[in-house]
Amino acid sequence: MIRRLTWGLLLLLCFAVMPGCYYFRLAAAPLQKPRFVTVKPVDEVFGTVRNLLLQDGYIIEQEDPRDRTILTDFRHFSTRAGGVTQPEGGRLYYHKLRVTVEGGDEGAAVVLESVALEIRSSYVYDEGGKVLSFKKRYPYEHYPGMFDLSSVNWELDRMKGYLESSLRGGGRRGQ
Q1: Distance between CA 169 and CA 59 in Å, rounded?
Q2: Cα–Cα distance, 132 to 94 (Å, whole number)
């Protein structure tokens, strides 16, 4: 009886501790999707947004003029460094940005979305007198506990502000 109780408590303790470990694939929280509306025509907004993304340093991977969707290639937008648990070079945040321009008679709505979010890290270690290294990618869907989403939200808000002000005529260069 004591043995069963001990194993039961040990198992219960394991289940209590597991959710705090990122490698047990906790459920990913939905990411914000900033949206803004402009009175300009949809096709004009789509072309302007495409050019503004290129000016900001994004590389267009795919675009669909019919659906008015632009998908960028991976881009590094933040580095989280410092602390005991961080690798030497920090955690490098990368994502693909999807921009969708929806429209109607009144103008266009622009929706930004971070897709294929991941952290990239490099590790160096000593094995048998040799210095070895490897790089690892951590996709958000599999390791959500590793991500500080404030960095992602900051980048999405920065791009929203840049695109919105540029479409109004301000053009701040995303700073």
Answers
A1: 23
A2: 24
* CATH top class, domain 31-168: alpha beta
* Tokens 């675009």, residue located: 63
Q: How many CB atoms lie within 10 A of CB 36?
A: 15
**pTM for this entry:** 0.76
Task: Sketch the domain layout of the chain as residue ranges.
Answer: 31-168
Q: What is the pLDDT of residues 29-56, one digit of tens each?
A: 889 999 999 999 999 999 999 999 999 9
Can you tell me which residue has the tokens 């219960």? 12
Whether 45 contacts 110, CB under 8 Å: yes
**3-class DSSP assignment, residue 142:** coil
CA–CA separation, 140 and 157 (whole Å): 19
> Among 116, 121, 114, 115, which residue's Cα sits nearest to residue 158?
114
Compute φ and ψ for 66, nearest 5 degrees: -70, -45
Take residue 123 and report the two structure tokens written for it: 């590790």
